[in-house]
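Researcher: Go.
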Amino acid sequence: MKQSLQLRLRQQLTMTPQLQQAIRLLQLPSLELRMEIQQALESNLMLELAEEVEPSFDETELLVSPSEREHEADRSDDRSGQDYDGTAQHEHISDNLPVDTTWDDVYNGATTYSDSGYADDWDPFANQSEGDQSLQDYLSWQARLNRFSARELTIAEAIIDAVRDDGYLGSTLAEIHTALPAEWGVSEEEIEAVLSQVQRFDPVGVGARDPREALLIQLEQLDPATPWLAQARQLIDQHLGLVAKRQFAQLRRRMRLDEEALQQILTLVQTLDPRPGLRISNESPEYIVPDVFVCKENGHWQVEINPDAYPRLRVNRHYAGLVRRGDTSRDNSVMRQHLQEARWLIKSLHSRNATLLKVAQCIVERQRDFLEQGEEAMRPLVLREVAEAIEMHESTVSRITNQKYLRGPCGTYEFKHFFSSHVQTVDGGECSATAIRARIRRLIAAENSSCPLSDNRLAEWLQADGINVARRTVAKYRESMNIASSTERKRFA
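Model: Structure:
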């Protein structure tokens, strides 16, 4: 075997730590990014919030030679020493010098709780409850207020533990019986009696085993003089399946009612709650913080980053000034590493915001008709078009549009909402799938409830507008918007 030297050229992409960090920050939503920044603030001594320091800091000062900074510091110390030695400040100062203020002038005994005014940053909802009481806690509180014996209260707690979030009983009476002490000898009749009382708690109908039982219990709480009460009880008890299937003609024949009477009964039934437990929830609402604001000024659409979505960072001036270039000590190496990581993070955040702004501006430019006219004017748009417009890779656009939100005059939308497929029109053009959904929703909202539009009829209306769409496509779009079929949408006039 002969040994030889060869020279080869090849291209290879190396993922540096800086590039990996920039890519990871691109796809983080605002909430996770704030958590990432908070962790960086806690672990990196060189980072600080820009709001907490003077805004006049210039990082070019870090380029000054450490020897020059030491020389300047020595000169300032010498000047301060000369001033101290050359004046009468070294003389003895008496402890009983008169002062121009008194303790009462400084401290008036008032506290923030006794202040009659309101601070500028006072939040009137800061001490409000977040509604963290669960359905089980609410029912247990009512059980303790009820006149239960110790034995009945234990049975009631076992029943309440078996109640699901929607209010229905998630276990059978036999399963609840096994959860009680065997030496008590509790019978299922006792459990049934306690369950009957729990079902009358607020919300009424909680602990029911099926919708029929929940609705009948709620009907019992109505005034006996309520019109159509007996017929509503008969409808729920015997014909609830026909109501769910919208078979109103067969329902009228079985109950021997005319159309107007059946409409009155259904109106009464619709006032009931088939899932009573959902009214009590311990889930606090989650609010969306928009990443970008869009507004129209002087006839032009302006795009800007939400300044409150991301905290602004900067390098700490004091700690950065302690870094010495020629020092190889461990402390100096740690500070140098923290300084470099802080600069990388700040640069990655700036790059992220710049990319986010570019993508948002491109979307607003392409979807100007949507912002001015609504969803029916949405244009078809794919990631590749935006990537080509801003001269970036399609994967970068996909990352930056993931879980990012845009706030405009018509509401708050996710970036992904502006991207949709297209359908060919009669004249050879393209129509966005979002626009088609909006038209379907408008047609269904204006339909006659007693004779709703079928999917075939909706397809014919769209074809009359020049949009070539099949019935199955209409059905797919309708189901994606959680709109029921024409049979289920049918109502009485």
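Model: The radius of gyration is 36 Å.
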